Each structure stands twice: as C-alpha cells, then as structure tokens.
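Narrative of accomplishments. A recurring question from our advisory board has been how the design workflow behaves on a single, concrete structure rather than in aggregate. To address it, we present the structure tokens for one chain from the evaluation set, followed by the sequence designed for it. No filtering or post-editing was applied between the two.
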C-alpha cells in the first residue's frame, strides 16, 4: 500500500521538461510570424524604431495602403497558379499513384526513382531550357505557364505521397469491386477517394504551400502581368524611405490563405500525414 502511495506522489519531471522544451521550440518557430503580425499594425516610424516599440495603438493604415495599391492582382495571380497547379497534380498524380500502388509492374521501382530523381535537379539548372521554351512558345509573363511549371515541380512529390496513402488500402477491396464489375474510374470514385481523402488533403495542402511560396521561377518568368505575391513583397524592399510596416502588412495578407487553409484542414492533414504510421 505504501509503495503505491509513493508511486502516486512522484512528480512527472521528465514529462514536464519535455513539455517545456516542446513549447519553447514552438515559440522559437512562431515568434517571427508573431512579430510580423505586430509590425503590420504599427505605423512606419514605430516599426522602424530602435529599440522596438512594444506598446502601441494598433492601426490598419498600412493594410489599407497595401490593398488600395497593386496587391490584389498579384494575390489573384498567386491563387490562380497555386490552385491550378495543385488541381493538376491531383488529376495527374492520383492515376499514376494508383497504377504504381495497386497495379504495379516489373519496373515500378525504376519509375518511382525516375519520379523522385527529377527533384534532385537544381532549379537553376532547369531555368535556361525552360526559359527558352517559354520564350519560343510566347509564354513568358503568363500565369498559366507558371501554373504548368509549378505542376512539374510538385508532381513527383504528389505521386510519392499519394502512392504511400494508396498502399494502406487493403487489396481485397479492389478485388471485390472488380468482381462486381467496377472499372478504373469507379474504383477511383468509390474506393480510393473516400478512403484516402485525408491523404489527398495533406498532399493538396503541401503542394499549395510550395506553389504559393515559390519565388525563383516566378521572378524569372514573370514581370508585370503574371507577377505573384512573393514578387510583390520583394518590391517593398528599398533603401529609400521606411517600408517595414507596409512589408509586414503585405506579408500578413499573403500568408493568410495558407494559414486559413491549414487551420480548416488540420484534422484531415494530421490524419493524412499519419496514415500508415500505426498498424
């Protein structure tokens, strides 16, 4: 009896320590975002002051100036390129992942290696051929051409992720569906999509984030017509005048879609990223 009481009175030191470490790590990663949000509600003199202004009266003046300027077209371009490329990745990647996971062939591993090997190529190495191709096809400064480039970047990753999710589906389900006369599209619609919906949501969000934040190809393939939100943010950086508060306000607006999408799909995202982790 005394032993059990002694065990109950033990303080979970290790658990508390790991909790504190975890919260410290979260704070370190979240602090730059929090500071950006705080800077966006300051005036330009307050944002550029040294030491930093901690206590201030929040204002929406910088947001109004950003929204009344050229930000909306850049924001719309980012939405078109990111959402369009993510949809293309799903449309092209889901059948490819189905073939590699459900109906593998002899060279499946070689095909998988080919897909992932395209990610080994540095972006700078592919810039010149892609630029020449876009120039000859008159697709420079075209938002749809940028969406196609984003698709080629994210498609290998999408195929790999979707294949890993499809491998968790019992093969007996497909065998039973084929006995009932189900075809390829019926299997995709009735079996694959409902069962791997969390994985599809996770893949979509990852591809959306990569496309939304992409800068290298956007700065080289666009100028004024098809510029995206990262291009707009770079335009604020200048050696003349104060720009910290406006830059923080524009960065906050540019990050909202990804943050809101991640918050809405957080349950599906967690389920998708942990599929297959526990047998």
């Amino acid at each position: 009896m005394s032993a059990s009481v002694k065990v109950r009175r033990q303080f979970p030191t290790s658990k508390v320590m790991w909790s504190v470490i975890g919260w410290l790590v979260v704070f370190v990663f979240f602090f730059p975002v929090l500071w950006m949000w705080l800077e966006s509600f300051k005036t330009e003199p307050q944002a550029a002051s040294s030491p930093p202004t901690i206590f201030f009266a929040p204002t929406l003046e910088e947001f109004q100036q950003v929204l009344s300027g050229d930000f909306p077209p850049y924001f719309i371009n980012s939405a078109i390129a990111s959402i369009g490329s993510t949809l293309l990745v799903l449309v092209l990647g889901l059948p490819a992942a189905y073939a590699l996971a459900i109906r593998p062939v002899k060279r499946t591993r070689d095909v998988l290696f080919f897909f992932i090997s395209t990610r080994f190529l540095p972006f700078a190495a592919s810039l010149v051929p892609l630029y020449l191709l876009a120039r000859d096809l008159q697709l420079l400064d075209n938002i749809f051409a940028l969406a196609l480039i984003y698709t080629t970047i994210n498609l290998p990753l999408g195929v790999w992720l979707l294949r890993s999710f499809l491998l968790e589906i019992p093969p007996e389900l497909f065998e039973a569906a084929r006995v009932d006369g189900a075809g390829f599209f019926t299997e995709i619609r009735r079996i694959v999509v409902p069962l791997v919906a969390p994985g599809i949501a996770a893949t979509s969000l990852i591809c959306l984030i990569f496309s939304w934040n992409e800068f290298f190809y956007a700065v080289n393939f666009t100028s004024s017509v098809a510029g995206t939100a990262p291009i707009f943010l770079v335009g604020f950086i200048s050696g003349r005048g104060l720009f910290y508060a406006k830059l923080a306000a524009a960065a906050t607006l540019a990050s909202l879609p990804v943050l809101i999408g991640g918050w809405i799909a957080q349950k599906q995202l967690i389920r998708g990223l942990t599929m297959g982790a526990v047998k």
